[in-house]
Amino acid sequence: MSRPTSLDLPEHTTAHRLETARGSFAVLDxxxxxxxxxxxxxxxxxxxxxxxKEDFLDLLAPLSAAGFxxxxxxxxxxxxxxxxxxxxxxxxxxxxxxxxxQGAALEAAGDGGPLxxxxxxxxxxxxxxxxLADGAGPWASLTLMSSGPAEIAPDQQVRTQLLIDHLPTxxxxxxxxxxxxxxxxxxxxxxxxxxxDDFLHRRWVTTAPEQLIATARQLMxxxxxxxxxxxxxxxxLVLSGEVDYAWPVPQLDAMAERLGARRVVxxxxxxxxxxxxxxxTAAALIAFWAGExxxxxx
Length: 298
Prior knowledge:
Strand content: 15-25%
Pfam family, one: Abhydrolase_6
Protein name: Lysophospholipase, alpha-beta hydrolase superfamily
CATH superfamily: Alpha/Beta hydrolase fold, catalytic domain
Keywords: Hydrolase
Structural class: alpha/beta
Organism: Actinacidiphila bryophytorum
Largest sheet: 8 strands, mixed
Radius of gyration: 18 Å
CATH class: Alpha Beta
GO molecular function, one term: hydrolase activity
Distance between the termini: 36 Å
Number of helices: 11
Helix content: 40-55%
């Protein structure tokens, strides 16, 4: 999971609700900095499995300083957005339709500039499904961040299956303790500062368990739809770290080639370049959005 370096909101950033035709969603909304050299449009950032809008906190300041309005969102059932207590509500088509509604709301309230779409990890599959259902729509570009062509790697399938097996029989607090015990095999949970551990715990227990179960199944069964996505006429960027435990990096390289996408690998980052190397990640996004993405909207 992504671990932000701080929960402090950057300057010119507000936490509020984005009202859409499919409901209300919690967002962090970073306005373009007043001294930005130019206004470049709006970007919608969609988080991944067990994630939330806070995954993108470290990107907000550099992106807004470059002239972008940046809207990071909690999807339905994630953290502060809330959602139904039934798995059917989190079918991929439902989550994709939410993204389409979020884009429509941003387009209606925007300044007429290009609208960019980014999905991290599971969020990449969700935004892909939105584009395949509705075409390019209002979007000027697509970024897939640490998100692969199909199902997650076999070792991650084992871990994810454990969650599917046990969440229906556990309350979220008990599940949290069990997941932390598993994490102790790979890392020391006590190494997190208290504020971060408190946030990760709060985010976990406020996420709908049905959302986690449904999206875990999606990660384990997602088909390869790269060929379909390649036919959507949008500039595309595939961005990742040098190492990725969910989808091997060579798989991401091959996906970018099949998509005809720009490919960026962030040195020193793993599955969450947004939090692990935010300055380098923001620079890559700015170059893409202010270049190919902007040109496509003209």
